[in-house]
Amino acid sequence: MSMHTIKLHLGDAEATDALGGALARTRPAHDGEGLQVHLHGDLGAGKSTLARALLRALGVTGAIRSPTYTLVERYPLSEGGEAWHLDLYRIGDAGELEFLGLDGGEAVLWLVEWPERGRGWLPAPDLRVELVVDGEGREVELSAVSAAGQAWLGALGAGTAAYGFAADS
């Protein structure tokens, strides 16, 4: 499968929030497997900000905590199932994930920060998001890695002008 990629410039936190909302609106329907989104980028690149915006746009209310110390935060979704937000920065070995009880049954969406630290344990991503600090803003590259990711980016790409983004796809 050829990899579909969209590159965007996010000028500020509001643009990051808008991207999270656009990802929520264009997310493919749940087909029994949880969608995997792997968030890559240095510390402070905006991974948690994007995850929080996506969760908020999916209807999560109340506090959306960073899983930096808890490693995983679970959020019930109004449509059913849960979104799981993982931050693997603090794990030393992917084998540590076995003890978190992440069988994935309830998860319809996985948002994984620092996924390279879970290599060999985590399923392959559907969508890979690379965030890079660029002055006051961020450069983001979204890459589809599966058929579900391809459908997601196709829907997102079709609406980038409506969402206020300039995309290079």
TrEMBL record:
Assigned GO CC terms: cytoplasm
InterPro entries linked: P-loop_NTPase (IPR027417), T6A_TsaE (IPR003442)
GO molecular function: ATP binding; metal ion binding
Compartments in which it is found: Cytoplasm
A Pfam family annotated for this UniProt entry: TsaE
Top-level taxon of the source organism: Bacteria
One GO BP: tRNA threonylcarbamoyladenosine modification
Keywords linked to the UniProt accession: ATP-binding, Cytoplasm, Magnesium, Metal-binding, Nucleotide-binding, tRNA processing
Record has tRNA processing as a keyword: yes
The keyword Magnesium belongs to this UniProt entry's keyword annotation: yes
Stated family: Belongs to the TsaE family.
NCBIfam families named among the record's database cross-references: T6A_YjeE
Name of the protein in question: tRNA threonylcarbamoyladenosine biosynthesis protein TsaE
Species whose genome carries this gene: Lysobacter antibioticus
